[in-house]
Amino acid sequence: MANLRRLDLNLLVTLDVLLAEHNVTRTAERLHFSQPSVSIHLAKLREIFDDPLLLPGPRGMRPTARAEALREPLRQALAALERAVAPSEPFEPAMAQNTWRVIASDYSEATVLLPALRGLREVAPGTRLAVLPLEPPRIVRQAEQGEADLILHITEDAPEGLRRRALFTERYVLVGRAGHPRLEKRPTLAQFCELEQVMVSPDGGGFHGVTDKALAELGAERRVVLSVPHFHFVLSVLASTDLVAMLPARLVRADSGLRVVEAPVEVPGYEMSMLWHERVHRDPGNQWLREFIAAWV
């Protein structure tokens, strides 16, 4: 109790950010403090806990064992305090001034966010939406630190530690330009493998994906002649060349410039989900946004 009486909320908030950033300058930037103020807070914290907490290292400051032990209890305590003092009034979208940050791939932008965007502008005109690029290794940290309110991601690849809500199940179809001479009807497996194809490789430069795995089980192999990192470029390629692609059905369902047929090979689909951190689970605005987006898919 003696240590508790010597603490104030500002010190605990500073410690929480220091344990996340391991850097006084970045902590000062996040808290909108001066660097000397953060250094003073750190000195007080060291005295209170009788421990250096953070020590100089080759790549910034490194936490001591005592600091590591403090990290999760402190985060939970601050999250509980944040929930305790949060306003309990219901969220009113027409009056809201929120800036929401949503992490999405170009596929999720087209199939989830775009359908909901017009309605969002009509119902919540005072809000803003920032769409951030999907970088899977970073999403847990971004959610933990409040850099993202919502993440749109494949359920199978969703990391542990985030809440999740399934949105829909996607399947793959064979797509080419409207009037493509070899897509007048569903091709045979042999004809499919002869077609020159383009594929999306999110990691960059790959020529092997789920379609190729399915073909390998049948003892077949296709001709992938182009690999790109984004779906939007694929759509342009298909519209202007005779290349074809195996694409998610929702991505092309409203494109009259493309022809869609069933492929002669069954390719496993995937489930799309919304992900969010426990810190915003009960936030009225975040709850409203999740429900709104789910209603449009």
Essential attributes:
297 residues; alpha/beta; D-Maltodextrin-Binding Protein, domain 2; three-stranded antiparallel beta sheet; elongated
Low-confidence segments: none
What Rg is obtained from the alpha carbons, in whole angstroms?
25 Å
Average pLDDT confidence is: 93
Largest sheet: 5 strands, mixed
CATH class of the largest domain: Alpha Beta
Spatial sequence of strands, sheet with the most strands? 4-3-5-12-6
Count of discrete domains: 3
* 3D shape: elongated
Number of helices: 12
The ordered string of helix (H) and strand (E) elements is HHHHEEHEHEHEEEHEHEHEHEEH
Which structural category fits the helices and strands? alpha/beta
CATH-scheme architecture of the largest domain: 3-Layer(aba) Sandwich
Fold-level CATH name of the largest domain: D-Maltodextrin-Binding Protein, domain 2
Helix amount, in percent?
A: 40-55%
Name of the CATH homologous superfamily of the largest domain: Periplasmic binding protein-like II
In what range is the share of β-strand residues? Answer: 15-25%
Distance between the termini: 52 Å
**Number of extended strands:** 12
Description:
- The chain is of the alpha/beta class and 297 residues long.
- It folds into 3 domains: 84 residues, Arc Repressor Mutant, subunit A, CATH 1.10.10.10; 100 residues, D-Maltodextrin-Binding Protein, domain 2, CATH 3.40.190; 97 residues, D-Maltodextrin-Binding Protein, domain 2 (3-Layer(aba) Sandwich).
- Helix content is 43%, strand content 22%.
- The protein is built from 12 helices and 12 strands.
- The strands form 4 sheets. It has a 5-stranded mixed β-sheet, covered by helices on one side. The protein has a 3-stranded antiparallel β-sheet with strand order 10-7-11. A two-stranded antiparallel sheet has the order 1-2.
- Strand 8, helix 9 and strand 9 form a beta-alpha-beta unit.
- The protein is elongated and about 80 Å long.
- The model has no long low-confidence stretch (mean pLDDT 93).
